[in-house]
């Protein structure tokens, strides 16, 4: 359907206007100007910020530079979470641009993973893709692919090539004709109000009686506080890619159209802003 | 069900994030664990009936990695993969600089590395158990080199 393919493009090309500012305690030889960039929602911070790094390193001495890391309002930003997820979860209620602070010292070992190279990002990304396929197809589709197909998924993401990526990814979105959907839906639900990093459980797209499960069904089962109270004013927003899908949306459709490139639905539960 | 004889050996808890030390699985009920603030997660959403705080993990060595004498462990759900890796390294007396990776095989019967994925170091073992455990346990392979595709 043409309309549904448009959704795939809209998701892929989503951007967040961001202002990067150097942390005030970093040692510079001259004043560091902020750097503005449109960040792809579906990518990862360390994959798309080479220009940011170069910009600030120009005004610093080599000996004052170690691994770059990013922070928003005191919260270190996990590079291994997709950019759009970080924004929706932490900054969606604030005015644009997204103000991110750049650090080159005092790497927060307890909060962040190191990102030694682009290979580390690729390994993490492919690991997520494989885990998603383990849930959707018992890994059969990803394992039948050749190494060059896996590479194409990564290159498509790295080079922002929608067609290159989806030429392969569409196979990961198929399911046997006799089934009504994937085996289980790959999803992760994030909230800033709990200690747990995220909720991830086994959940089928179709009920035993053949009825398609909806987003609302999923939340009711694994995170009821997200849609509480059932009668009355809801306390939270349920956000994917910066939008609030209707709770009646079939989960299988969401998985096929609103997943991130890693094939997971990354869902943010954020408190509703009172006017 | 036949059980392997297990030693009831308590390990010192690690100070780093991840909470209490791992305990051997013994057929009898273990003595109550001392309360540890690090391992308790306030506000978790546990559906009713999900009362086990610990899950059983079976650790298997891959390649030329040393084999652990005790393979079956009861682990707090909130322990991360990184915490588990640190524990295995300590147990095997590996130096800090040696790399150790953890895999989750999808099909328990096959141990081909290229049919597995490597969970992210900050992933909780409880989540992996929910999604990829079977027969009441989570099987994880550990390996010294990055052998996966």
UniProtKB/TrEMBL annotation, chain A:
Entries under Pfam families matching the protein: ATG5_HBR, ATG5_UblA, ATG5_UblB
UniProt keyword list: Acetylation, Apoptosis, Autophagy, Cytoplasm, Immunity, Isopeptide bond, Membrane, Ubl conjugation
Membrane topology: Peripheral membrane protein
Ranges for domain Autophagy protein ATG5 UblB: 184-269
InterPro entries: Atg5, ATG5_HBR, Atg5_HR, ATG5_UblA, Atg5_UblA_dom_sf, ATG5_UblB
Compartment(s): Cytoplasm; Preautophagosomal structure membrane
Keyword Acetylation: yes
Any one GO molecular function term: Atg8-family ligase activity
Domain Autophagy protein ATG5 UblA residue range list: 11-104
One biological process term in Gene Ontology: regulation of reactive oxygen species metabolic process
GO cellular component: Atg12-Atg5-Atg16 complex; autophagosome; axon; axoneme; glutamatergic synapse; mitochondria-associated endoplasmic reticulum membrane contact site; phagophore; phagophore assembly site membrane
Keyword Manganese: no
The Autophagy protein ATG5 alpha-helical bundle region domain, residue ranges: 119-174
Purpose of the protein: Involved in autophagic vesicle formation.
Subunit structure: Forms a conjugate with ATG12. Part of the minor complex composed of 4 sets of ATG12-ATG5 and ATG16L1 (400 kDa); this complex interacts with ATG3 leading to disruption of ATG7 interaction and promotion of ATG8-like proteins lipidation. Forms an 800-kDa complex composed of ATG12-ATG5 and ATG16L2. The ATG12-ATG5 conjugate interacts with RAB33A; this interaction is bridged by ATG16L1 and promotes ATG12-ATG5-ATG16L1 complex recruitment to phagophores. Interacts with TECPR1; the interaction is direct and does not take place when ATG16L1 is associated with the ATG5-ATG12 conjugate. Conjugated with ATG12.
Similarity-based family: Belongs to the ATG5 family.
Protein name: Autophagy protein 5
Organism the protein comes from: Ictidomys tridecemlineatus (Thirteen-lined ground squirrel)
Organism placement in taxonomy: Eukaryota, Metazoa, Chordata, Craniata, Vertebrata
